[in-house]
């Protein structure tokens, strides 16, 4: 028992320590490929679920950090998701929980590429695997469990195979994907707010920006401003990712 | 075995009185109770 636990720790440590430095040509190729693939509507509709997982994990992390109890996350087949938490019905904790979702993919992208740029691609992929496993454990419906399993297995095989070059390319691809999907997700939210008549009124009243505007009476920031902050945060992370990749 | 009976009219009157005594935020489910303490985002 102790031996198998020790060998598991050794396996994780070995993968954590993998160093890779993809060539500038390979990075350019990966950036172009990810940008083109995510621009294809059919592929984006499926790949967006991976972004939703990180969006919900942003809510989860903020809820935990502010002392709320997280009941779980649910992902839906239309790539929307929901995090259920319990705690005070007003205040900074609730506000932070609401606003943590949209910037989360961008922040993850920045973290992954920062680690990759400093040569720690193995650590970046290990952290990403840990986030996916946590999301899997918190999933409370079939679509959520299936999506998290698929994402964890897809990158988990690469993580386990442990080829430094492939690990390096994968981390770059993940970073670029989450940087782009963070911006695109925020733009989609902006579209919901700008064209409320095309959607139901309840769709607007249930967005993170609208709920954040009502979350803390001491800080009455309107939803439009929260939307702008989401956009600035996701664009800022994307700029940071591309700067780190091509500096 | 003793059977306690409450007339329908008495039960309805009691429910009406209970509702009237409740704080307004618990009368509208979107304003209080589960709706605000269990948050979905």
From TrEMBL, chain A:
Protein name according to UniProt: M50 family peptidase
Transmembrane segments: 26-47, 94-115, 166-187, 224-246
Species of the source: Nesterenkonia natronophila
Protein keywords: Membrane, Transmembrane, Transmembrane helix
InterPro entries associated with the record: Peptidase_M50B-like
